[in-house]
Input
Amino acid sequence: MAKQTFIIGRAGELKLYDDTVSRRHAALEIEDGAMFLRDLDSRNGTYEIRDKVLVPFAGGAIERDQVFAFGECVRSVTQLLDMVAEHGGDLGGLDAPPVADPAAFDVTVVGLEVAPRPRLSAGDIIALLDHVDAAVSAGETLEDACREVGINVQRYERWCREHGASPGDRGRNDDDVRRENERLRKLVADLSLEREALKEALAKAAAKDARAAAAPPISLVRDGQS
Output
């Protein structure tokens, strides 16, 4: 079969809507039952998530069980193939039955078991930052420590601005996020209860109206005449 190329990115055939993803971030190529992925000089890079680190990936052959981060947007190869099928692409020789649950793929990021999802979580990023800080405290340079986990110093500094410059700050930020998530969960639960109560009240009102509409007409009889 002829080689098919699908652009991954905010403006590609395989769209990833994330501000860390370039418009044309990477290319997925399918030819004769083989798959290849290559980065298109993206702003934030393409990485394979492997062995507890983000491994920079410039290009090469790929398999179904691999998981990649495009910037901070995470996708398994199986998920990319699902996107190809949704786009109407011909998988050609890649017609083996898909994995039952693509989200069941587990990858390890700095000791955390995470399933492929829209993007790296705050917990994943904080774990990477803590790993870098520990390496620097042990005597490594910041550049070397960042390189070990597959990021550059600019990304480290941006993540520090977003999540805290020290483990203590990150811990407080993480606590704030957990409290906010708990508040939002409670709010959603309360709204769900209110919605169910409203639905029940509307159902009762509708039933009452239906009974009233179905009731026989009432006639008054006086002196033998209606």
